[in-house]
User: What shape does this take?
Amino acid sequence: MRKEIEINGCVEIPCEVSIDEFTDAFIQWVESKGWYFGGGFNEIVDGHYINPDGTKGKSVLED
Assistant: This one.
């Protein structure tokens, strides 16, 4: 039997930490437990999603 947990939330990190640094540390921690992560990450700054080109996207409050 396999159990999965869906994660829906935000982690607040210092501005100088990049999304790549965070995701690398998160995946490393998960894998250090012998677990696996499948999913994605979104960067949010000042209540807006950040587009792949680094520009501000839509507000997190938009549907």
Q: What stands out?
A: Helices lie at 19-32.
